[in-house]
């Protein structure tokens, strides 16, 4: 027990003596990525944080020496925001031609939220004596109303789908499910047969953050899903495939 206490005391002493401000920013970003993974965040969310923070580190890079924490304060974060607001959307793309379109305000907000979350973590973990970005505000973005399809437009879409063919019934079921439930496309494509309560009119959906929820469907959607599954859904190429909606070759 005494040996264990001595080791712990020495480790604490080493941590207190460590010049945390000289730690390379990219190394801290790697530590934060490990933290996010251990918290059970989805791979996509982990990648989103890491990519945004790496962009910040690269923005600050000046020469070959690594950027350290002391060089990345609130003023540098504000300069980064100004840079993002002027940045063209496709500047970093090798396949899409350069356009004059700027990054959307919502994209810029995402970068700022990533920075704020990262610096809150740095403070909680003891890398900083205070939250350096506590006073950094998220830039405002215009509030846009989501335009919805009119009843006439919906009927035009559905009239293009042949209810007598496998592809037509599948696509009709997909469109009607999306319209009725508001599912994300990723949520819809990940639905399995076991998620579809065809007799009781509900779908079991795994959403963002691995959060599961029950989504009721209307009677018309319930009927088209039953028609698709019982009469038109093809046999999968592999028995292990359980996706509700299948590609039809």
Strand content: under 5%
Helix and strand content put the structural class at mainly alpha
Mean pLDDT: 85
SSE pattern = HHHHHHHHEEEH
Q: In the CATH hierarchy, what is the class of the largest domain?
A: Mainly Alpha
Helix content: 40-55%
Organism: marine sediment metagenome
Pfam families: Phage_int_SAM_4, Phage_integrase
InterPro entries: CB (IPR044068), DNA_brk_join_enz (IPR011010), Integrase-like_cat_sf (IPR013762), Integrase_catalytic (IPR002104), Integrase_recombinase_N (IPR010998), Integrase_SAM-like_N (IPR004107), Tyrosine_recombinase_XerCD (IPR050090)
Protein name: Tyr recombinase domain-containing protein
How would you characterize this protein structure?
With about 250 residues, the chain is mainly alpha-helical. It has 2 domains: about 20-125, DNA polymerase, domain 1, CATH 1.10.150; about 150-230, hpI Integrase, Chain A (Orthogonal Bundle), CATH 1.10.443. The chain has 9 helices and 3 strands, in the order ααααααααβββα. The chain has helices at about 1-15, 25-40, 45-60, 75-85, 105-125, 150-160, 165-180, 185-190, 220-230; strands at about 195, 200-205, 210-215. Strands 1-2-3 form a 3-stranded antiparallel β-sheet, with no helix packed on it. Strand 2 and strand 3 (about 210-215) form a beta hairpin. Helix 2 (about 25-40) packs antiparallel against helix 3 (about 45-60), helix 4 runs antiparallel to helix 5 (about 105-125) and helix 7 (about 165-180) runs antiparallel to helix 9 (about 220-230). It starts with a helix and ends in a 17-residue tail after the last helix.
